Records
---
Amino acid sequence: MDDKKRMEELVKLLSEAAEAYYAKDIEIMSNVTYDALYDELQALEEKTGTVLAGSPTLKVGYEAVDFLPKERHASPMLSLAKTKSREELAEWLGDQEGLLSWKEDGLTVVLTYNGGELIKCVTRGNGEVGEVVTANARTFINLPLHIPFKNELVIRGEAVIGYDDFEKINESIPEEGARYKNPRNLCSGSVRQLDSAVTAQRHVRVMAFSLVSAEGMDFENSMEKQFEFLKEMGFAVVEYEKVNASNVVEAVGGFEQRIVDNDIPSDGLVLAYDDLAYAASLGRTAKFPRGAIAFKWADEMAETTLRSVEWNTSRTGLINPVAVFDTVDLEGTEVSRASLHNISIIKQLKLGIGDRIKVYKANMIIPQISENLTQSGDLPIPAVCPVCGGEARIEKDNDSEVLRCFGTDCPAKQLKAYVHFVERDAMNIEGLSEATIEKLIAAGLIHEFADIYGLADKREALLGLEGFKDKAADKLIAAVEKSRNTSMARVLNAVGIPGIGLANAKLIAAHFDDDAEALKNAAIDELSAIEGVGSVMAEAFYGYMHDEHKKRVFEDLLSKLEIEKTVRDAESQTLSGKTFVITGSLEHFGNRNELKAKIEELGGKVAGSVSKKTECLINNDIASTSGKNKDAKALGIRIITEEEFMEEYLKGQA
């Protein structure tokens, strides 16, 4: 293959891997493989003097995903040039002093303060444009919301989840296959949540690593002075050590010894010049600033033999592979297992039982397979689910291939259905946790949704379960009884009709006036005609109600419930016929779902995107350059703040 074709191939492979990693939190390629391919591409570019359009050596990360407001950074957030040579760090420093610190592995954010208050938090995104996550940042457990400095302050930090918290969160998830792969992915998803309440549960911390600007302050040309100032303001700052060419190698060794006891995930170190003016004078390349460099650990590799692959079915139906190999010693611990994540990685590595493989610990912590020396490529992919024996098929999930169970009665998937059934927007049964549901299924106490409402008659059986005493049993029974009085919309959401969430369920229930018989006999044409439903949801709803088993489950459930008829008098439906779009963070409502529920209660609708039918876009940041703001301006749709919406549309409402 000639150089040009190889470069085209590498650009495609690396771009797909980077998009999956940065924008979708999916790992389709190991770090070691990515670094090796990146270095190969960079070498070919230097050799040929050609850089292809779209080359990852020219850009940082990928475009921010669309579900959060976007904002352009005042200055680009660049990656760092990297080295694995300790001696190169000394050479790089020359006669300068530098600060050596952890390169923490989470999600980079930019924090802006004014008047002593946190006013904005934006993720790194693609380095040029990030996502606004201010409401979520206010839940970071160590972030000061008020500081004594009153002028504008802009800092950069790494949002992280510590290993202790990561392990506690994973321990709360019974199925191994459903657990989070690493703290970085968990943190990225947590920071970019739409509901800040979820972020708050994840114990996200932020560690400051750079001061961008502090209006009116003089730091005597020293980065260390900047860090000292940030500490005085109450920020947690990355652990750092002042070094020079004579002691930087020894300092790197000190950090290496502390990795085992370091709770915060890191993927190396950062060395930056302490002299701010000198660093600024060096400028930047197309991708890297010249005032700092990243050090990545040379991964300790071990060669071993693949003995088997375990397949674990998660509650989502995904069947996750785990490699089992002859035990090796890595970074001072014995390792014999490593997650393979998905089918794409198995195919990429060309795995087969008995193959000689190389394994390492990513960031010196998480076991991974870096290379397959044998590449037999004959690993059998199961055709049946290991839990239920039902059909298992490979399918596409974003940019990777996964194995999924299609068995209709798989216990792992049943658990997911029950977990959804008891959620707040569904039947809202407080205290009926996933772990408890699993016990009830295993004990044969529930076989379908209606059985939950018979638990009062099975109190003695409940008391026989591990962890159940009189008080716990009575509390569960009381929560179940409380949920009997409910709405038809909640029931339609709870039973898990594909594509039908609470908002759509409300539209359908309202159209048929909460009448069960009318719902069961609804025709596709009539369902499709309901504004906001459409043909896909109509067919899914019709299919559910005409599946004899599902229809019976629905009827059995209704027989146990008291359905409260929703009062829909025209006088109260002040927003009838109006469609709104909500974006950005809110101040008066707890989250977007609360505002959405209020709009729907008054007969209005909430859409996910701006169109000609939109009444107005609700966004507290009217000057934002987000996609929704641009769409609204292009279509002549008003953009109003939350307060303006309340004044105009909710005046006089309880």
Note: The radius of gyration is 28 Å.
---
Amino acid sequence: MTATLRTDPGGFRIRWSDTTAQAYRAAGHWRDETLTAVARRAVQADPGRVLLIEGDKRLTRGEAWGMASRLASFFIERGLKPGDVVSVQLPNWVEAAVIGLAARMAGLIINPIPPIYRESELGYILKDCGAKMIFTPHVFRRHDYRAMVEGLRAELPALKDVVTVRGGEPGDLRYEDALAAPEAADADLPSVDSSAVMMVMYTSGTTGRAKGVLHTHYTYDYRVRTLGAACGLGADDVVFMPSPVTHITGAIWCIDMPWVWGSSSVLIDVWAAEEGIQCIETNRCTVSGGATPFLRQLLDTAEGRPEAIASLRLFFCGGTTVSPDLIREASEKHPHGLFFRAYGSTEVPSVTLGISGRAETELGAETDGKIDPTNQVKIVDPETDAELPEGAEGEILARGPEQFAGYLSTADNDGAFDDEGYFRMGDLGRRVHGDYLVITGRKKDIIIRSGENISPKEVEDLLSTHPAVTEVAIVAMPSATTGEKGCAFIIPAQGQTIDLAEIRRFLDEAGLARQKFPEHVVLVDDLPRVPSGKVRKDVLRTRARELAEGAPA
């Protein structure tokens, strides 16, 4: 089941195995149809059904299909061809879901970019994937995205069009202008191969710069269908998904699930627990999920008013460290619902599928969920790759029909897979109770803050250029509010000092997203090291944890 590199219909170099593809097709895991065909059937069946909800907005299937069809026509008018990349840096707005469907119709590659990203990250991603068009807000949360993109245009020769959403300046190409195009006739739309790449989504890694994760129609569609089935999703469900639509979880649940499973999705563009509670109560939401802070804040806000979230029958929690006690607390206070931990990544979105009933409540708290039966998971010795028995801690490797098709930069594939094609998840864990996983630590050195993957090396590389910094090492520090936060251990230059205020000023000036800024700083004379001189980050993580236990989070 090993894979080799081949060129997909859009010109991307992807990992591919004919044997594996045949097996997945024969088993029904991979289907030769795209979201366009699924959405077309859904519109024909019930065009008036509500698909998306955002505040007072209600978008029906028919309305969303019409908008997406006009956008697809607009893409073709602007000269975009199958395999071209369209970037979307939008909050959780209904427009993001419409653009997602329109891109499938036109055979384009969607590139979701988190709104928190600024010049440093945005410029790198747009250049790396060769985006031809980007959809961006004019101004959102007091940040001028239009100006930010325009300031990068000189560095982005491939970028032809910037489309502003919900605003714009005179002369701008606006979302409303794109919707003025006529609806595309079926004959105008290209035939799309399900083996083609349909998304490039960037994830932070240990090498500093983010890596472009390639998903095909096959891999993405499989996860949407099977995850919805595992959750018992249906036409009576209303999904509240606070996770950003520019993350793999938010994209799956907000863009695809409503078309595939007949549910409705509720979007909120700025997270606040009280507004989240109101969304759930007003819309009678039945399913939700997100990183630890979302659940913690929902529980705290719903204290004394359990009826506010009484409609929830399922909440999955993941993306960062999840306390077993948090899941137990949720299950005890709200016995009508299932609360559980789940595990996955951008590369392999749902290695585990949580639990299936109240009888497994404790497993939902003490484990990170039951392994998807179609996924293959093995726990290996991190040094030798020898497979370990149940209960032993080791590195987690996974493969299956949802596994991504490799990284955009094929060099990033080196070392990411074993000889059998298993992806190295970068986490440590144990297999327990036969088919359940418990995540015990992280092999790869990232910080997960409110579900966001933050590469310490990226921040370290910038901080090391500060004249007051001789050396810096950043590790995860536990936080009650965000799961984890960055703790910077700094050796200051002789006769100088540096504090958090200066660090924030410096990184802000460099154009780094503020969520990546360290939130705790420790000045030291030296850093713990192995004999080769490499910094012992395990020792620093222990110290950061000890500091957190004795200081406010």
Note: Residues 212 and 408 are 5 Å apart (CA to CA).
